Write the structure tokens for this entry.
Amino acid sequence: MTSIAVPYDQILQRRVLIIDDEEANLLLLETLLKREGYSQIHCLSDPSQAIAKLVEIEPHIILLDLMMPDIDGYQLLDAFRRHSRPDEFRPVLVLTADTTLQARRRALSLGAKDFVSKPFDVIEIALRISNLLETQILYERLRHGSEPAADAE
Amino acid sequence: MTDAPARKVGIGRYWADLSLPFKGLVLVALPLVILIGSLGSLYIASDAEARAEDDVRRAFAIQRDIYQVHALLAEAASGVRGYLLTDQNRFLEPFYKAERELPLTLARLDEAIEDEGVRREFDRFLEITEQKQAGLDALIALARREGDRPARSDAVLSALVANKAVLDDLRSQIEEIQRQEGILLDTRRARVDTVRARFLALTAISAVVGLLGSLTAVFLFSTGIVRRVRMLQVNAEKLQAGEPLNPFPDERDEIGRLAKKVDHASELLRARERDLREGEERFRLVVEGVRDYGIFALDPEGNVTSWNTGAERIKGWRADEILGRFFGTFYPEETRDYLPEEILARARRDGTTEDEGWRMRKDGTRFWANVVVTALRDETGELRGFAKVTRDMTERKRAEEFLKLAREQAVAASAAKSEFLSRTSHELRTPMSAILGFAQVLELDREELSPTHQTSVDQILKAGRHLLSLINDLLDISSIEAGGAELKEEDLSLNDVLAEAYDLSGPILRAASLQYDLSLLPEDTKITGDRRRIVQVILNLASNAAKYNREGTSVQIIAEKTENQVRVHVLDDGNGVKEADVSRLFTPFDRLGRQKVKGVEGTGLGLALSKRLVESMGGEIGYAHRTDMSGGADFWFTLKVAQPSQTSGEAAQAQHTKESSEKA
């Protein structure tokens, strides 16, 4: 499950933020990621807290549900984009039960890096997440020369 | 045309048929001939009179000459007697004069006398004259012989007596001649009178005849020409007035021919008028009879001048109520002040104009009208009025509004349905996501589970996946029925699509240990449809074949092309479908009792979904028992062949050329 270039441990060190109004889904993803070995998993069931949580924990990757009451995933995608720095690569993986083409297009055009329909294959999800994080690490290496990005936490 | 008067016969007919120049010639020549005739007779009469007067003059000359002969002889005799008495020669002078002049006078007389009776008397007279002369000669001779003596001999005396007797004879002869000449003169005078009387009579007759002749000629002229010209004029006036013409004599001169032509023209004119009237009548009847269109005319000021049934039906006014009224009456208050004038102005400017809007009926109710106003101009371009065609479009307007509303409602309903489907999808998938997800997580660590729990996890996963595919198919069908499924209309290569479907379904069929083949078309064909959906249909049919057939069954995908569609068959040589079940094949959730068959999974929605997919791409789907084999199923569906681009002929041509070259 690891690539040659990036040690899998480094990937598992990354901070993951999961936003979903369904507690069951939050628990599923948390269980899955814990089982994989991720150490910094943050769950959020109230999307209105999303920006605050983002600022607070500065996650490396966000798993985002689209259909939520009050504030939906599209609005959050838009907000994340506005809050991101130009040199920043913070992938958002959209997870949704809305399988329509429009939803897929809209989410990707708003900056989502990947899109997975619910119900999903747990192994597939784990792979997609690790792939995105690997890309992120390689990106950071490119930006800071060959020295590995230092992870304070 | 009424009957022509009976044709004249004889001279009248002959005269009538003569040409006009000839008639004119006759008209002028006739008095001239008569004049010349009377001049000739005048000449003859005056000649006869002149000759008669000449005769009278000659008679007088004869009388005079006869007296002169008598006078000459008497004087000669008296001279001779004087000579006898005196012997003086100078007394013989008359005698010599008579000797000289008598022959001349007698010659003149001889020439002048013509009458036979007088001629006889004249011959006697000549005789006596010569006797007298001879007597005188003899007397003179006697006297000269006797000489100069006072007394004369008896011989002389007897000669004298004899001479005297001769002279008496002569006198009596002269009287006789005079008498006869007098008779002649009287006769000739009477003849002169007669000739003069005849001349007078002749002149009078000539005058009368000439007058009558001229009158006749003028009469003939006036009857033959003037009268007919007048008739022709009358006919021409009637022609102008459009009245039937008077019958005209059938004659063959110029006027007769002209009259025929006028008559012909009048017939043509009448025929044309009749055609025109009939045409107008038909047109009027048609226009009046039209019920669906209000057709009426306006004068240049916009007042109604004609009205048809349709107008009455649409607007509620009867013709006698509306004729002469301004057409602004038909407009509702809010537009009445400006719109009528504006429409007429537009029609005047553009020739014709169309308007759509509310108009008012007689009872004040409104209707939605489509109005076409056309300016009517005569050949000089002067405005004669307007034609107005009005249609009551209220129903259409209502229908349009209803349709618009219905369309809006349909759109709203469709949006609502899509929204509902989307929500339903979300609501069903979200718990499924948790169920399947946790079951998967458990399965990942199945070594840590007891065998019983392992079986439980397997069952959860199996049932969950089945439920998920059920949800997927159901939502698919619903979204197609809601019109919300995005089916693409792309031009595809049939062989590519078949190959893709074959590749995707291959593992399923091979897993079921079936023999699986694909037959591509020898010439690829462009079809129209949604690639993903076509593949989905073939997958459904192929996986059905895999589910319901024994091991070793042969499954085959083949395609056949007809003129404008392609038929794709998924064939197998298995048991086929029972006749009684065929009609239920495409019914949702109807698995023909096979859900009880061990090991056969399925949602019961595959065929129903396939049917909807094929139909929404404009095709058909069906089942047939195979007849070419001992048995087996033939599931088929049709696809539309792509139409060559119709926007450009050249493109189509190019396409055609390309296809041709590809075929080559």
User: Anything to note?
Assistant: Chain A has one domain: 8-143. The beta strands of chain A are 15-19, 40-44, 61-65, 92-96, 114-117. The first strand of chain A starts at residue 15 and ends at 19.
